[in-house]
Amino acid sequence: MFDISMQALAAQLLVGLINGCFYAMLSMGLAIIFGLLNIINFAHGAQFMVAAFLAWIGFTQLPLLLGPTFQVNFWVALLLAPVIVGGLGVLLEKTLLKRLYHLDHLYGLLLTFGVALVLEGVFRHFYGISGVSYDPPPLLQGGVDLGFMFLPIYRAFVVVAAILICLVTWYLFEKTKLGALLRAGTENPKLLQAFGVNIPLMITLTYGFGVGLAGLAGVMATPIMQVNPLMGANLLNIVFAVVVIGGLGSIAGAVASGLALGILEGLTKVFYPEASTVVVFVIMAIVLLTRPAGLFGKEK
Predict the structure, then answer these.
(1) Structural domain span for residue 49
(2) In angstroms, rounded to a whole number, what is the distance separating the alpha carbons of residues 84 and 78?
(3) How many Å apart are CA 181 and CA 247, to the nearest integer?
(4) Which of 258, 287, 300, 277 is nearest to 29 (CA)?
(5) How many domains is the chain partitioned into structurally?
(6) In a domain, 56, yes or no
(7) Dist CA 9 CA 86 (whole Å)
(8) What is the distance between the alpha carbons of residues 69 and 187, in angstroms, rounded to a whole number?
(9) C-beta of residue 218 within 8 angstroms of C-beta of residue 52
(10) pLDDT digits (tens, 9 = 90+) for 253-289
(11) Are 165 and 216 in contact (CB under 8 A)?
(12) Four-residue CA torsion sign, 259, 261, 264, 265
């Protein structure tokens, strides 16, 4: 019925897995922020985009402006860009978001949506929307012939690194004392503060960490995706659907759903390409009808 070669199937599965890794990292950051701050961070896609542009600027623009000595390599950008974006997230939380915690959730959503529009507008003004790109670092260039497919080394690195990051983050929040404090802070912050825990600082750092995950994904995505002001917005709709399917605030749900839906999306492109853009949302509708809290969410 389907005339599909093994090479084509394997290639689409790899593309789906890579997309799933980015879905998982972005949705995990969203789940962490929502779980503690109870805010739907609509700026998440824009923060992903800002990190990608910071990495690209460090690779290509700084050497032109300041000389080749100031070129930032991929590994330095992988460390610096998430820290910078996370720091900007901390600034946003300390100056604006913290004023909205006692108000309806809609205000936080509108504020972060406005921030996203401002960031996208600034980068669109300076860099347009056509998109820019750069090559993977020399260490990760080339590929390996597996017989049934040619596996690019950088894409294999993205898959392994993303899965490790997701596992470490899940362990940090679910199996350590710090994670227990964070979960307790979502349940009864006043009681936890009475025991001497600095709740405002914990909230600020958690938001910065969630934003930093988006920044990390942005740097990893730049050798694969076209870097443009709308790259985050294009992903955000799917990422929100992943978070809903996994369960709002569930880190394990975000990771599992992101990876699974990325692979499913890749398979759909092989067997029924017309449905590849809507399959995630169809699944989201089915999950909401049968389990409103999400696959890993807690029913109230």
Answers:
(1) 29-231
(2) 11
(3) 21
(4) 258
(5) 1
(6) yes
(7) 37
(8) 50
(9) yes
(10) 889 999 999 999 888 888 888 888 888 899 999 998 9
(11) yes
(12) negative
